[in-house]
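Protein Record: Sequence and Backbone Structure Tokens
======================================================

Structure line: whole-number tokens from a learned vocabulary of local backbone shapes, matched to residues.

Purpose: to set a sequence beside its fold so the mapping can be learned.

___
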Amino acid sequence: MLPWHKSAFTKLKQMIDQNHLPHALLITGMPQMGKFELMQQLVQTLLCHDQSCGECRVCRAIAKDNPKEILEVPTLIRRSHYPNMVYCRTEVNDRGVESKNIRINQIRAFCEALNKTADDLQIGVLFYADQMNVSAANSLLKTLEEPRDNTLIILLAHNPKNLPATILSRCQSVHLSPAYDEATQTWLEDHISQTQNADFDVAQLLENTHGVPFKVLSELSGDGFIHYQNWQNQLLDMVAHPTTLSQVQDFEGNEVAVLNCLQNLVIEGIRLKSLGHEGGLVELNQVVKTVRPDFLFRLLDDIYHAINLSKTTVNIKLLLDNVLIVWSHITHLKRYPQITRT
């Protein structure tokens, strides 16, 4: 059991114990929060006679499933090693290209597979449900409105706001919240190598990734996090000492990555300001104490706009410079300036 899953799993276990598990369950949370792993824990708890022992025939069958793997051949749905379980996700289409959306023909196949008569519980897992196109969502709606007995449909979604209200209203939701607690920090310490553990502060890593533990591990797997920390340190030094703005050289060629790093800092600053808390970054705490909240929100809007403009022919270096001028003076501004729009 992942420590940041305990609250959500307690809610699920209570549904099971009280025989109130719905026909359709929606598990939400940011990418890399472990929604898929929570789903597997739930399925094993439902099907295993010893509630997820990990050793029985059912647990071993589910453990063999690897539906996250990208296939090179077109397919609509994937069968589990457990005979009464199917998965639906974005797949390679007939042209050999992975689709950005879950398509209507996939949902039809998914629903048809769950429409058979079976004595044992039938389970369908849809990930990620917020990738369904409109036609696919409408096709799923009929099955959600008229569910078969002994059937459970589990939808995983990064952003439930991208799902139609008609889908949301027919699902019981369980949310995985960002995790900053000591149990999660201990789990991360156990999964980070000794060398990395000496180099990084785990609480700070969680703050940098907005409480997403698996994202911490993925970013530490290469040297990307080292670059990220260097950029973060320079950005924090810049706001403490605005004259260092002209000395920054590492940002050239990494403008979008730096904007993303600054975006994370501003989001964290807004979070700390709204909660009245201090975080693990001393320099950011100083900014939070003195900055006007509306200036942080306006800067965040400008950063979002700059990141979007980076996909065009805009001069991203000049745009980043404009953003950094505002950032470096954010605690001294009397009036928020207009950043050049293109």
User: Anything to note?
Assistant: The mean pLDDT is 89.
